[in-house]
Design brief:
The complex is a heterotrimer of chains A (about 180), B (about 280) and C (about 280). With about 180 residues, chain A is mainly α. Helices cover about 70% and strands about 0% of the residues of chain A. In chain A, α2 packs antiparallel against α3 and α3 crosses α4. The relative contact order of chain A is 0.09. In chain B, about 70% of the residues lie in helices and about 0% in strands. Chain B is built from 14 helices and 2 strands. Chain B has a two-stranded antiparallel ribbon. Chain C is α/β, with parallel strands linked by helices. In chain C, α3 packs across α4, α3 runs parallel beside α5 and α4 crosses α5. The N and C termini of chain C lie far apart (about 45 Å). Classes of the chains: A mainly alpha (about 180), B mainly alpha (about 280), C alpha/beta (about 280). At the B-C interface, α4 and α6 of B face α2, β5, α3, α4 and α5 of C.
Amino acid sequence: MTLDQGAPSDAELIARIADGDRGALHTLFTRHQPWLAARVRRRCADPAVVAEVVNDTFLAVWQQPTRYKGEGEVAAWLWGIAIRTLLHRLRPRKSVFERLVQSRPQHHPSAEEAVLVQVQHSDVGQALQKLSPELLAVVQATVIDGLTTREAAALLGIPSGTVKSRMSRARLELREALL
Amino acid sequence: MNTHRTNWHVDDEDLAAYGTGSLASVPATSVEAHLMGCQGCRERLARTGQPQDIEDAWLTLADAVDRPSTGPLGRFTGRHNLLRSSIATPTMVAAALAGIVLVVAVPLAAAVVAGDAALVALLVGAPLAPVAAAGLAYRDWADPAGEISLATASAGLPLVAKRAVLVSVGALLAAGISLLVVSTWVAAPAALFFSWCLPGLALSALVMLAGTTRLDPLRVALGLGLTWAAAVVAGSWAPRSLRPEAVLHLLATPALQAAALSVVVVSLFATVARRDLVSYRRTA
Amino acid sequence: MTILTSVASLEIDELTKTYGRTKALDGVSLSAGRGVIGLLGPNGAGKTTLLRMVATVLAPDSGSLRLLGLDPADPGQRIEIRRRLGYLPQSPGLYANFTPFDLVDYVAVLKEHTDRDWRRDETRRLLESVGLADVMHQKIRRLSGGMKQRVALAAAMVGSPDLLVLDEPANGLDPDQRLQLRSLLSQSSTVLMSTHNISEVGALCQSVYVMFSGRVRFAGTPAELAGLAVGRVWEDDSQDPRAIRSWMTATGAFRHLGEPPAGAQVVDPTLDDGYLFLARQEHR
């Protein structure tokens, strides 16, 4: 047990997990499971699937902790694993090529996200509220979750072309609303 | 860690609503983006729920995490098959691999020196694989739990015997293949090449029997092994060359084969008859 | 699984064991019911040999044993004893590449527990009870000596044995862990443990046997052991050459063991005093 001030950081916990520390996994779990479960729940109605996705996410952390390269937030890395796990459930059979292409870089907080932090209280928020539900879903999938067109299509159950066209429409409407 | 330099945090009501899934779409998205960078609000979110739910979810994860680890041979040593896991212990598997390497590498190295030397090396090494296996299988350190295993219900001859067989089978198969390769450049009928089998088994049966006495089976194995090696080399020795075929012919004589067979049968019977002495030892 | 309180758990009668010229056990007898029984004595007194016999790992040269009412010389009864027994040897010799989880699960396999889920839950429970929850998936080679000892202790307690045989269980444990040992031991109805640490006897044991040179020299309660030195311990301000033993206490006064001179300030004896007095008699 450590005597240093305060609790260990997330990155420290990952390092300990890489060392085989089960207690560190427990701590990481109690810190992150609540928000991760809530977030997955908003993208998938089935509670059993949500529980499995969250479980598999932390299992992946336990089995391959060195995938975290120390860049960006651990929370973002966890979300990356979770959303990919969810996607994999919806489209389980992927070709080798797709899987190669899919090795993604770290999910860094984007400019859009930084803006959306304040969304509720700003014009952007009101503008977004005026979008129809389908357009909003596409914006969330591509902008907030950082998914590619193909992945967003898989998640929402629509063709990639539709994702693209809805994104353009959403951008148009937002630009108009903000002018 | 807060990556967002903002004084704005999610208020309690919204956080609770987000947690139960009753917050509207746009504000929920905003909350999500904020939570990504704010540990404080993540903790607050955790507190809005039931701690028991988190613990229940943890127990489900723990059931998947708490497994015996699988080494490189995990698939084969089968943590699922408990019988296999007590026989194919890591030490025994390592011994089997070492045995295989020895009956392949040493003859090959010898073949580089002189073709006949390979056959001599095999004639020495192949029968000794089961001999060594039998000696090792009796050792405490053949078992991952060491001395603790001696006080369990599984302790006894069956476990020792199965371990000896495991190591022997691997090494013997490799030796058989090696021999077939080596036999291509020695002029003698193929059947002769396996005349060492029964003598080898006879020696190993003696080691197994030694384990039921106050003798140390590993020392017996060493003694028998050295004697065998010396005999084979001496039998193959001819001025300025090696003649392993002479040894082969000697081994193949019906008298010797019959003697070897009777040693095998008698030793195994005696070992089984005295198996209680393996389970309840007289020496520490 | 119930044991009548009137039936002694351990009935040991005149056990002997000779190794070459040394008599490791020279007629040891012991009778004990439930509770924690301490085996005290210097190195080489025969404690380990006796414990091995009680753990059914070693057979005596002569004498008889009845453990939990069963006779280990009979193969069928021996397996039954082993099913209800847990053993912690002096040098456990655990496989260093296993994790604590691997090892305890493996011992459960040896103890014939076939249900994988039961083994997982039991392994977890035991490792948590010895304080190794965080490191249960780290290889044993990376653990400290005290942690390795605790792994072996957990392995000994698989299946909640009725009879626990522990050879120096507190080896390598810090004071806090020794305290926890007490609550762990209370789970088994009979515990036979050896130690050369006298304070452990006082803290953990209901009865104590003192052994010197393969024989039992004292059998009784810790209080009775201390009582051997009644009237033989006095305190003073300086060294006293007439005493058998003298040492300085924490307060700066001197404590003496032997025949007190007239007018000496006689004090109540402690366990150490009783043991030392017994040891002194032994060496006459």
